[in-house]
Amino acid sequence: MDKIIFGDNQFFGVNHMSEQTSIKQSQKFKSADDIFKTLEYVNDIGIKSFMFTTHDQLEPVLERIKNDSRFNDFKLIPCMPYAHKYGNAMVELGIFEAINKFTPGNKLMAGLKGVGSLITSDPVPIMELLVDSEMKLLKGMNVEAIFLQNIVTDLLIGLGLTNVLYEFSRYTEKKYGVKAGFFTMNHVKLHNILVNDLGMVNPMICSDINKIGFRMNPTQKDVEAVLDKHDSYNIAMSILASGAINPAEAVKYVGSLKGVDSVLFGASSPAHILQTKELLEDAMSRQNS
Amino acid sequence: MKKLGVIGVGKMGLSHLAIANQTVGIEVAAICDTSKPLLRFLEKNTKFRAFSDYKKMIDDVQLDGIMVNVPNTFHFEIAKYCLEKGISVFVEKPFTLTYKESQELVELAKAKNLKGQVGYVNRFNPIFQRVKKLLDEKVLGEIASYSNRMVGGVVIAESSKGWRNDYSKGGGCLFDYGPHCFDLSTYFFGTDVRIVSSVLKKVFSTMVDDIVSATLLHDDKIVGYNYINWSDNSVRKASNTIEIFGSKGKIIANKQELSIYMNEADEGNNLQKGWNQLYITDENTDVNYYLRGEDFSRQLEEFSQLLNGTISESRSSLYSASITDKMLEETFNLSGGVR
Q1: Hey, is the C-beta of A213 within 8 angstroms of any chain B C-beta?
Q2: In this predicted structure, which of A111-125, A161-175, B213-227 has the lowest mean pLDDT?
Q3: Within the 175-194 window of chain A, which residues sit less than 8 Å (CB to CB) from chain B?
Q4: How distant is the Cα of A21 from the closest Cα of chain B, in angstroms?
Q5: Domain with B313 in it: what CATH number?
Q6: Contacts with B268 (C-beta within 8 Å, 6 or more apart), sequence order
Q7: Which residue from A159, A189, A214 is facing B46, i.e. has the nearest CB?
Q8: How far apart are the CA of A281 and the nearest CA of chain B, in angstroms?
Q9: pLDDT of residue B138
Q10: Rounded to whole angstroms, what are the CA distances from B39 to B52, B189, B213, B285?
Q11: Contact yes or no for B281 and A214 at CB 8 A
Q12: I need a surface site. Which of A41, A65, A233, B60 has the fewest CB within 10 A?
């Protein structure tokens, strides 16, 4: 896994601090072309990993990446599911039709597999169908890992359905030959489940890690203590806390934590992308020395 | 450790269930839903006892509190049954569909010395809590007026189908979106309030309102204007914005950010003359478990404290929620129908 990973929030107008910033961002990235141009720049300056939610809007962008040899060494890290897609489909079509809609290959067989698991109440086959459905978008591409969205990870934690986390991880390795990763807003709880309860070795966890402790639950101190153990592969996101911390300070804090292995960041303008990348490279190389 | 039952584990109910299950001081002992596949799924994969009949759940399991996350039309009946059985309740918003029913439940809870809370989650937002504190400390001086807007994109095309287009099922912008907006009015400016005038307007719906416009008067001295629109496709998700005008300055706030204009500096509160800016990132947002935002986690932490007796009244009490229902009813009655 690269130390620096480019994210996608800016493409879809996600900003936790300000609605106005969200509006400005969604104006900037109106078309697939706008997004592709940014990724072209990211690739050019040597950021070779892109982590993204499996939005429908990314489909034409991924298609262009696939057919462009400059992106041959560019690694994709999908995060799934894009929950709204399923939410809307379930409301519009009902649960069985929704599962059919998103299951690849033979519609009838896939439908039966999903319906069967509903009858036997086993969540694992449904999870596998949905992973396959999301991965259709990435067929033949350079996928480095598959991540589970925090809303799903954290819901499974909350309900105590933690074996699904284990099964997800097993499935991505078996079917796609890549490691699974987990987004979470509950780093400490998840770490305890994956490492201590499920006995997973060096699981990948991506969570908010920033100087002001924003959304580091239950507390910044607790998260830092777990990072310090360094028995998970930790990816820091929201290092700028949606802009509350200036880039230099943000990077200095993350670089000071030995347990942080990679950083996921997003920015809209080339200048900001380059600046953050250079700051991160400097901090992460010093972290190693 | 207080034992909790959860009635209704559909979309929002499932989130509440997960959060309750991770809340300190609460143990989820039983769940109830009418969806058989969902129940079977949860019964097989979780530790909760599952029921399809809430009365049976209450008979079979010793419970201290119950969360009522069912469609709005059933809030009254189920909450009343729980209270009559001596069990404290958390009811999703709106409390009930009429002021009379809400009043009845307030009285019942009082007579039985039981605790109650309604799911007005905005009251647990750190920025709105900051605004409340500033108002309580009179940082803006005497409040003269406010405008309270809630906009979102729920009904964004012509539609005559579904519960949203049916008042008897709790539909319409006033009864679906409205509760959150009107509840913020009482949270900030108190429950001594009446509606002076209102207009309900349809845009895409055929039988119900899509836009609500109402003028409120608190304590006969603070005038408020509530504007609610659930047909605005330009916003990514529902947002509440409140602008408050007082003799010493002005506040503009939403769930993420707070702008304060001060006529003079207020050193005690670290506010300079002119504009001051605060963000959600400036507030403490730590929670034991996070699923849909700290607001949702904190409202259940409060219900746990209520059940465990560490607080005697919720900041989102049955009484304040009953006043919200009163305002919704007055707004509806004064409007003279949908235009």
Answers
A1: yes
A2: A111-125
A3: 185-186, 189
A4: 11
A5: 3.40.50.720
A6: none
A7: A159
A8: 26
A9: 96
A10: 8, 42, 41, 33
A11: yes
A12: B60
Q: How far is A193 from chain B (nearest CA, A)?
A: 14
CA distance to partner chain A, nearest, from residue B282 (Å): 8
DSSP B162: S
Asked whether the predicted pLDDT for residue B57 surpasses 60, the reply is yes
Q: Does B273 touch chain A (CB under 8 A)?
A: no
Q: Which amino acid is at B268?
A: G
Average pLDDT for residues B188-208, to the nearest whole number?
97
* Number of folded domains that form chain B: 2
- What pLDDT score does A244 carry? 87
> What is the residue range of B174's domain?
123-288+323-335
Q: Which domains, ranges and CATH numbers included, belong to chain A?
A: 4-288 (3.20.20.100)
Token pair listed for B202: 């349809």
Tell me if chain A has a CB within 8 Å of the CB of B257: yes
Query: Is residue A111 over pLDDT 70?
Result: no
The reply to whether A24 touches chain B by the CB within 8 Å rule is no
DSSP B35-78: -HHHHHHHHHHSSSEEES-HHHHHHHS--SEEEE-S-GGGHHHH
CATH number at residue B243: 3.30.360.10
Distance CA B38, CA A235 (A): 34
Q: Nearest Cβ partner of A158 from B19, B43, B45?
A: B19
pLDDT tens column, A3-62: 999 999 888 766 666 666 666 666 677 788 889 999 999 999 999 999 999 888 888 999
Nearest residue in chain B measured CA to CA from A124: B45
Cα–Cα distance for residue pair B41/B193, rounded to 1 Å: 46
Q: Give residue A237's Cα distance to chain centre.
A: 10
Write the ipTM: 0.92
Q: In sequence order, what E strands does chain A have?
A: 4-6, 49-53, 75-80, 145-148, 179-183, 204-208, 233-237, 260-265
Same domain, B139 and B248: yes
Residue B37 in contact with partner chain A when CB distance is under 8 A: yes
- Do residue B8 and residue B106 come from a single domain? yes
